[in-house]
Amino acid sequence: MKRLVVLVIFTLLAVMATQARACVGKVLYIGVTNSPNDQLLAEMISVLVTERTGTSVKILTFKTGAEIYNAVRHGQVGLIIENTDHGLELVKRPREANAKTAFEIVKREHRKTFNLVWLEPLGTLTGNGSSQLVAPVISLEILGNLPALPKLINKLTGIVNDNNYSRMVKMVKAEDKPNKLAREYLKAKKLI
């Protein structure tokens, strides 16, 4: 029995080490708009990925969603932050009242239309009279190159609904550094 436990622990450690090494030396480009919310989420993903895998992460800021999707099409960006309302609009589907249904639709349609995979939602954002789920969306190419990435990024699932999150977005709006805030938050949550 003791031997079996040691063998299981050794196997798990070997698998985790292999997954971590699979990301080292690669570069992940995250495309976002200049909104405080997008900037903060991108920094959280950037810090988490860099600290936990050794992958270099570069955040590219675009003026519009159309510019981001153009960069995705040309392979310049491998991960974006998206919400279900905009995602539905892009695939010419009506706005959906049920957030889970909206998420399932955009998840399916973005994979077919854009070769993009929606990861677990980071939470629900409310604004302009509607609520939408926000999630990291990754290209199939990056998924193939960095297969351990979704499992790591999914550790941020629900982060937008954390009570401290809205306070941090206000701090970013007030010119505080999103990288610093992201790092402090991830350390406090013991994610890095």
From TrEMBL:
Residues 29-122 form the ABC-type glycine betaine transport system substrate-binding domain. Keywords: Lipoprotein, Signal. InterPro entries: ABC_Gly_betaine_transp_sub-bd (IPR007210). It holds the Pfam family OpuAC. Residues 1-22 form the signal peptide. This is Lipoprotein, putative.
